[in-house]
Write a structure and sequence with these properties.
The protein is α/β, with parallel strands linked by helices and 315 residues long. The protein has a single domain (6-255), classed as TIM Barrel. Helices cover 47% and strands 12% of the residues. It contains 14 helices and seven strands. It has helices at 17-30, 47-50, 59-65, 69-78, 103-110, 113-116, 128-136, 157-166, 181-198, 218-226, 232-237, 241-255, 267-291, 307-314; strands at 6-7, 34-40, 91-100, 120-125, 142-145, 169-173, 203-206. A seven-stranded parallel β-sheet has the order 1-2-3-4-5-6-7. Helix 7 (128-136) runs parallel beside helix 8 (157-166). The protein is globular and about 90 Å long. The termini are far apart. It is found in: Nucleus. One of its GO terms (biological process) is tRNA processing. InterPro entries: Pol/histidinol_Pase-like, RNase_P_p30. GO terms for molecular function: RNA binding. Keywords: tRNA processing.
Amino acid sequence: MSLPYHDLAVSHTLLEAQTQRERVSHAVKLGWDAVGVVHQAAARLTEQQDRCAIRPVELQALLSAAHGVREALAAAEQRGRRLHGDPYSVRQLTRINIPADDPAEAQAACSSALARGYDLVAVQPSNERLFQLCCASLEVDLISLDLSRRLPYRFKPSLVKAALARGVHFEICFTPALREASLRRQLFANALALCRETRGRGIVVSSGARSYTELRGPLDVANLASLFGLTQQQALATISSSPAAVVERAATRRAYRGTLTVRIRAAEEVAAIRAQQQQEAGEAAQQQQCMDVDPVKKAMPPFKPTKFAMIAGRG
């Protein structure tokens, strides 16, 4: 059974209800199982502008928005790629993109309650300091890179390894390659460099579509990802297992949940452990007694006659 297909960046703007319904329904029709609707924030989050106001599109609205949505959802259920049991549903995720210029502002924005109101938190680093912070310690789910322009930093192997070790993924949005030839050349050059440093791991390919005409089907996106120097399996992972891992890690981070394994020991095992501990304690005490000796009393210094005693002796 193949994993569900994710497009984690349907738009970089907060969508109106009608526009959002149009894009989500078209994504479902193309075969996507999970769609991330993006809110583009400023560096400093504000309560009025950046509180999550994205609402999922209702089922009836999806079915009436475009022809073929019901058939696409039913086919996805038959292929076993559904996230939930309802064959007429698609997982809709909320996401915030935070452009980062200053490390202090980036840390404050990512740890704020406003950012925690979204399912996914992505940071767009604009300089080397921010890229290093995102890879090393910043609590984010995605490092979203604008690869259609010349980057002011390089993908150092140490930073890339640090991000992958933490479970942070790198995102490539392919829609700039559909707009201009110059943007396409720069995107392919940067994507090749990134995939070479990551060795195909931790890569998520999303659309970043501004309109439904820029959306592409999952297999088309996988074929495009293979042009970045990825194998066929790695290219499929960029739209399936890798974004699924991002969503799972984000849910764990937001819930602050962990697991604890408790082992119940038998009574005989507990008694044996206690006996061994007592034996070791007795041996240690006996060894300490052998090492302890009475302090050596210092000999009294020899008698030195004083000047008065010498004069008295002469007399």
